[in-house]
Design brief:
The complex is a heterodimer of chains A (364) and B (599). With 364 residues, chain A is an alpha+beta fold. Chain A folds into three domains: 113 residues, DNA Polymerase III, Chain A, domain 2, CATH 3.10.150.10; 121 residues, DNA Polymerase III, Chain A, domain 2, CATH 3.10.150; 112 residues, DNA Polymerase III, subunit A, domain 2 (DNA Polymerase III, Chain A, domain 2). Chain A contains six helices and 26 strands. Chain A has an eight-stranded antiparallel β-sheet. An eight-stranded antiparallel β-sheet of chain A has the order 14-11-12-13-25-24-23-18. In chain A, strands 5-1-7-8-9 form a five-stranded antiparallel β-sheet. In chain A, strand 3 and strand 4 form a beta hairpin. The longest helix of chain A has 14 residues. Chain B is of the alpha+beta class and 599 residues long. In chain B, 34% of the residues lie in helices and 23% in strands. Chain B has an eight-stranded mixed β-sheet, covered by helices on one side. A five-stranded mixed β-sheet of chain B has the order 9-10-13-11-12, sandwiched between helices. Chain B has a five-stranded antiparallel β-sheet with strand order 16-17-18-19-23. In chain B, a hairpin with a 3-residue loop joins strand 17 and strand 18. Chain B is elongated and about 90 Å long. Classes of the chains: A alpha+beta (364), B alpha+beta (599). Chains A and B meet through strand 26 of A and helix 14 and strand 20 of B. Strand 26 of chain A pairs antiparallel with strand 20 of chain B.
Amino acid sequence: MKIKVAKDQILKGLQITQGIIGARSTLPILSNVLVETDEDKLWLTATDLEVSVRCAIPAEIEKSGSTTLPAKTLFSIIRELSATDIAIEVDDKNSASLTSGASFFKILGLPKEEFPPLPKFDSGFAYNLDQAVLRDMLVKTSYASSSDETRQFLNGVLLSFKNDKLTAVATDGRRLALNEHDLECPKDQEADLIIPTKAVAELLHSLGSEGTVKIRAVKNQVSFEFGNLLLLSKLIEGNYPNFRQVIPSQAEHRIQIEREALFSAVKRVALLTSDRSNSVKLTFAKNKVVISAQTPDIGEAYESIPVKFTGAELNVAFNPEFIMDPLRRLTSDEVYLEFNDELSPGVIKCDTPFLYVLMPMRIG
Amino acid sequence: MPDRHIQILSDVVANQIAAGEVVDRPASVLKELMENAIDAGAARIDVDIQAGGIKRIAVSDDGSGMDRDDALLSVERHATSKIRDAEDIARLDTLGFRGEALAAIASVSRFRLITRLFGALSGTELTITGGRLGDVREAGGPQGTTVEVRDLFFNTPARRKFLRAPETESGHLRLAFLTQALGHPAVGMTLQADGRPIYALAGDATVADRIRDLFGLEYLARLRPVSYEHGSVRVSGFAGVPAAARLDRGEQYVFINRRPASAPTLARAVREGYHTLLASDRHPVVFLFLEIPPDRVDVNVHPAKREVRFRDHDEVRDAVIGALRRSLASDGAAVLAAGSGPSAPPAAFGAESAPASFPITDLPPVRAFRYPRLPLGPVSERPLPPDLPGGEPAAPTAAAPSDGKSPWDWCRVLGQAGSLYVVLETAEGLVLLDPHAAHERVLFERFMKAVAAGRVESQSLLVPETITLTPATVQPCRRHLELLRAMGFGISEFGGDTMVVDALPALFGGASAARLLPDLVSELESTGPRADRSRWSEEGIAQAACKSAIKQRDRLTLAEIEKLVLDLASADMPYTCPHGRPTMVWLSFSELHRRFGRT
């Protein structure tokens, strides 16, 4: 194999693969990046067996071929090179010679046969979506997913293609975030995919604001194809809990409130919470909501925001992070809070198809 | 002066003494009766117990039954149909053989036996009270044998005193039933306690069916099938995935030739089979069925046949280890192929390295050198009391620095040793920190302060979790519901052995109730005799809960360690975990200098 590439291009590609390759992988081959020639481009592939990323960069191919090279070494070398073009030649023993300006490097690779084969996506399951839409859905939900390893099915974001809707859901058992998007879903292509947190993080990192993303899935694998990138991930197996059942069907009270105002008030008041006492109280009184925190040994804080509210006074306590998480990611000016009483779940909505359920805290 | 001549004891007394070996509690009565029923070829066994079996245990079977003479002989000591001569012991294929059980049981209870031989027109009923034969008469009744044991130990008050509360005995009985049910899935079995049906198990079942019926489908999903052969030993059954491991050994069921058995060899082999897969204080869940030619295993070691001896230890050990490895490795291979989850890759099997029990995930080696000094805020106002000045909370002596200076003006993380201990450098020396113990201490103090202030924050769960406890742990849990609730656990009974949890103390972050509760109760059970063991204390619950919650964490980041060190510095008793283990070991520079001969 003999090729020429631009430094910027290959560096960009290697940067993406760096995100996948773990610092301490147990199989040596997983520290390598698979390098394959194609007509006028080079494919770079990295995998940790759970998530794989494949990225195409333009290249001048003199002689086709493929090999695997230690990703970290390759990345560090190319980053430090001063010239803009790099020639790479690989012999049949997987030893690669890099020539760039006056620099020469020889690095030893491993045969490409040792690189784990990537799954094939030969089923008909495929959807096209705007990159920006998918990104937005993941931004507004993924923070709510769980990291509790005993409940792996919650360690990711559910993408549910059903009833002509794509629904993204994440929950950690204490709160739940949901976002919907209208999408034509043929009956034979309805599916629930649980995308692991690591793949979601890669998507959030790489998805752009323009262009489309193609989502394909086979039994336990999913792929996202966008721009010059292909991101593959294992799906989390298991049934996602029936999230519809935790969404309160009706609310006794509904108030409209300025998102920024609520967010910054909670943020300020939460300064007086502690590890031991980590709750803020929302007191709904006539035409205002008072956000407060009292922590023994530390102090107390109050802040009130005017709202339209006429019911009897009501106190609900929440983990302040749980309130702030969605508010900092939403974009609309106003949000709606829905609630029934101090022990029932609270709901945050806005004028887009977004919904957030959070469970209150009991104190005493 | 009493008569001191040596005498041959009467049969009644001899039987009562023997009863001490065979029958020590209602559960052992149940075991003997169920084994007899199984040996009689029963297809169905019904068990009915009252008041923890102390009041009544009745076992009915539809087995072969006995005629009048056999029935009378069956309650004599060393009367058995199962062996004829000593050589038979070496090729035993029945569960019982010693011929002691019925005689022993009958000597310490009000005993009634009704039996009808297969094909006979009428049956026999006999009663024995405290070892003395009463009525023997003809009786009707279905084919098979029913044995009823009432008022166990009524005539041996010393032994009766050692019985525990009915609920505790009931737990043991259920365990005994469960063990037989697992060992003999072909036999249909029912258990009724105080008029309440507990289990109804269909016959002609497989082991998998039994596990599902007894423990639930979800439980079964966490087990991997085992099937292996080594020399003359065949091993089958199920092995729990490492994630299903528990804090106690309670769910290790090992059967040899369908007989529940234990032997040091087996326990060691199970541990060895999970080597590198489990932390040292976790125990795997296993259901193992060993088939060994009867002449290669000696079950005549213990009257209750609990312990066995093997003619060839190594063969049995290698068979169990091999079986577990094969079963778990196939799981591992699936993990690799599908690229799933964070669990250990198969390369770890058989690897010499110790399990990574608490790795710091983001510790780049270079960073340690440029790491900024970490000032410990609270220290300036309130120095930690290494020399225990009066008025300060009494720090336990363990690991407290001895030169009278606080090691805590600043510190920095140097790294981690043995994938567990965090190595810190301070102005005065080195500190080795056990992050588990430190975490426990910090969490425990927070929790107890909240409890003491009557201000426990409880985070409600979106979906309540139902958790099925074991018979042994459900009783104490049930007794302490109020206390658990006061401590922030939204817990209530769901019927049977199942609890439903709809809120957890907020301090435990994202902990899962399904994992936390069983660990908590078994931790409380296993902490052993405390001052007053019948009641759980708030402190005990807090200790157990914190320990379990920390167990769920198996990764640490550098930022978390810094936070932990800060939190620990402001703890009342930073030097030990709530269970008394040291949180840190301190090595002063002067000590180092001395050791290097630089003084």
